[in-house]
Amino acid sequence: MLRLLAIGCLLLMLSAAIGAVRAADVTARAIISPATTQVGEPVQLQIEVENARGRIMGPDVSVDGLDVNYRGSSQSQQTQLGTGGFSSVSKLSLNYEVLPKREGDFTIPALTVVVDGKTLQTKPVGLKVQKGASGQPRADSNPAKASAEIELKKKNVYVGEAVPIEVKLLIDERVRVGEVGGFELVGEGFTAQKFPKFDQQRETRDGRTYLGVIFRTVLTPSKAGKITVGPCEIPFLAQMPRERKTRRRGVFDSFFDDDFFGGLGAFAETQRYNAQAPAVEINVKPLPAEGRPKDFSGAVGQFQFDAESPTARVKTGEPLNMRLRVSGEGNFDRVQAPALVDKAGWQAYDASEKFDPANELKNSGTKSFEMPVVPQAAHNQTPQFAFSFFDPVAEKYVTQKSKPTPLVVEGAPVAPTAPTPSPVTIDATPRPAAQTAAETKPASVTVPLQYELGERRDFTPLHRRPVFWMWNGAAAVGAFGLVGLRLLQRDPQQKRAAALN
Fold it and tell me: Higher model confidence: residue 297 or residue 196?
C-alpha cells in the first residue's frame, strides 16, 4: 500500500510539472542601439520576435534620411523556471543596419511582422543624429579612392548574340575591403544572367595600384537598335586608412614605422560606400532575313556539329538512338535538336537533351541530344541530320550536316496473319441459363485497383508528441519510486542482526 501511495504522489507531481510548462505569447519589439549617433555612423536596428514557431516575414524599412539595409537574422532559446512553472522562451532577431545621411531627429515607425500568418506590430523607436566630424567620409558618397566601370567585349552585336560583360570595382590597395555586391544591371532590350562569384586581381593605372573586384556575366540583346546598359551602383564595405598625425619623432619611431606595426590601429571603422559605374551604349543589329534556313531556331554563335550511331545493325521497326552533339560558344538556350534531312523511310521522335557548360557563364560547352529514329524500310547508312546557326563573326548563316555511316537494316515489316478458325461442334441440347452464363464467363478477370480509405494519420515525429514525453515521464517516476521504496524497506534478516548488535 505504501508503495502504491508513493507512486501516485510522484505521478501527481509530474503531471503538475508538465501542466506548468507553457508556451508564452508571440511578441515583437523594435530596438535601436545606440539611440544617438552621427552622420555617417551606422547603428543597429533589431526586431526581436519571441516564441515564434512558424514562418516569419520581416518588413522592409524605409525612412527618409536613413539608409536601412537588412543584415540577416540570429536565434536563441532558453527555458526559465518561474512562479507559474517552466516557460520556454525563443528569440529570433531580424538585424538591420541604419546609416544616417543627415542630422536631425528621426522616428522609425511601427513595423509589421507576419509570424505563421499572424500579424504583429512593433512600437515606434527614435534616433537622434548629430553633425559628424569634419572630413569624415559620408556613407552615401563615392570615395575618391574607388571607381566602377562596365566593360563589354563588343559594342556592335546581333540580336540573340551572347555577349560577355564585366562590371569592375577598382579600390585603392591601401583600403581594406569587406563585403561587395548586391547590384543589378539596369536597362531595357536585353537579358542578363545572374552574376556568379566575383574574381579579384590587382591592376595598375597611372602609377597607382588598385584592387579590382570583377563581376562577369553574359548579356543577350532581345531587340535591334541602340541599347543602354547601366548605370549601376555597387555597394561595398571598407575601412579607409587614417592619416598619421604630425608629431615629434622619438628614438624608436624608425622601428615602429615598419609596415607590420603601421597597420595596427591605422584604419577607421568599417563604413558603407557606393561606387557608380557609368552607362555604356551598344549597337544591336537585326538578323538578316536573306538566306535564313528553314530549320533555323535562333542559335547565334560559333558551333561545331557531329552525329554518331551506337550500332551498325538494326532491325526494321526497332528504334535507332542517334547521338547528336553541338559544341562551341554562343547562346545555347536557343540551340535545339538538329533536323532530319531526308525523312523518307525514317520516323523520328522527340529528342532528349543535356548541356555540359565549359565555364561559369554557360556561353561555352556542349549540348548533347539523343533522338530515337525508327527505320521503316531497308537502308544501307545512318540518317543525315542538319544544324543551322548564325555566325556573328562571318556575319552569315551556316548549315552543318552530319556524315552518314554504314548501317545494316535487317528484315521488313511483317503483316500480322489472321488466326485460323477452329471447328465448332454445335450441341442442340438445351442447358440452364446459369450454366450457360458460367461457360461464357472469361477465363481470367482483371480486378481493378481498390483503395481502402481509413482515418487520417499524423506524421509528426514521435519525440515531438506530448504523449511520448508523458508516458516516458510516468515510467521514469515509477522507476524512481521503486528505487525509493527499496531503499526505505529493509530486509528482515538485517533487522534481526541490528537488534542483536
Answer: 297
Give residue for cell 548564325. 390
| Section 248-274 average pLDDT | 53
Q: How far apart are CA 455 and CA 462, in angstroms?
A: 18
CA neighbor of 38 nearest in space, from 245, 271, 273, 276:
271
Which tops the pLDDT comparison, 498 or 186?
A: 186
Gap between the Cα atoms of 163 and 219, Å rounded? 5
Pairing of strands 85-100, 43-50: antiparallel
164 and 76 assigned to the same domain: no
Q: What is the pLDDT of residues 440-466, one digit of tens each?
A: 444 444 444 444 444 555 666 776 777
What letter would DSSP give residue 494?
H
Q: Which domain holds residue 172?
A: 146-242+263-285
Q: What CATH number corresponds to the domain at position 197?
A: 2.60.40.740
* CA–CA separation, 216 and 193 (whole Å): 9
pLDDT at 385 > cutoff 90: yes
Cβ burial of 165 (10 Å; 0-12, 13-18, 19+) is buried
pLDDT band at 125 (very low <50, low <70, confident <90, very high): very high
DSSP string, 312-381: SEEETTS-EEEEEEEEEEE-GGG--PPEES--TTEEE-PPEEEEEESSTTSSEEEEEEEEEEEE-S--SB
